[in-house]
Design brief:
single chain, alpha/beta, Rossmann fold, 2 domains, 8 helices, 17% strand, globular, binds S-adenosylmethionine
Amino acid sequence: MRRLARAIPGGMALGRWLRRHFDPALREIHRLQTGEPGLLQPFPDTLEERYPELFDAIAARLAELPSPRILSFGCSSGAEVRALKRRIPTARIVGLDLNRRVIARARAADPDGDYRIAAAPSAGEQFDAILAMAVLRHGQLESERPQNCAAIMPFARFDDALAALDSALAPGGWLAIGNAHFRLADAALTARYEPDPAEFPQLSHPNLLYGPDDRRIELPGRIAVLHRKLD
Ligand SMILES: C[S@@+](CC[C@H](N)C(=O)[O-])C[C@H]1O[C@@H](n2cnc3c(N)ncnc32)[C@H](O)[C@@H]1O
């Protein structure tokens, strides 16, 4: 089919349109890409128990709190929320995602969970830990690896998203950023955070990063994944 589509003028574009038209998952992604200016990673891929060492580390750091408040930003179908619930059954966990289909799946898998179709928590809501995993990135940056990210996802969008997350994180709280194309060390609010030295096998050594001028940066030996917000 692909070979046929390539042979016909406009065939590839028509093929994309047909797929989008008939595949509800692609249709939802297209709706977000054309209607949500704050959209980050548009693709909702996730896995059960995707970052077990990180989830364990967060549970250990929150162990003193009887009922910690946790935000899973870009939760997709909720695997991350469920992994955290297994480790901290008393936690109050909110899962946020702009994609209506994945939130419906999360709710179906976990009817007691707090899953919301949103890009930000409610005004004034505060959390003891926020996870932004595989959301401060873009699949097209990964596949095309351009020298400059501005046309696909500018650094400013990462900085804006971080500012919103920062306002929802309680002083002393934990911010996890992983599987990202940007790092907290380059963000405007980095001075408000202390990097945690813990290393995580799949997360501490990214293979593609962009800096505040939108250009690719030389890869550092390792980056911090967990960060503590200073009091
Ligand atoms: C790759 S999934 C990440 C799932 C999970 N956190 C993980 O690491 O496995 C990225 C999700 O982020 C969501 N997303 C992108 N931009 C968002 C935004 N501004 N607010 C809320 N969710 C967003 C997408 O809809 C998508 O479901």
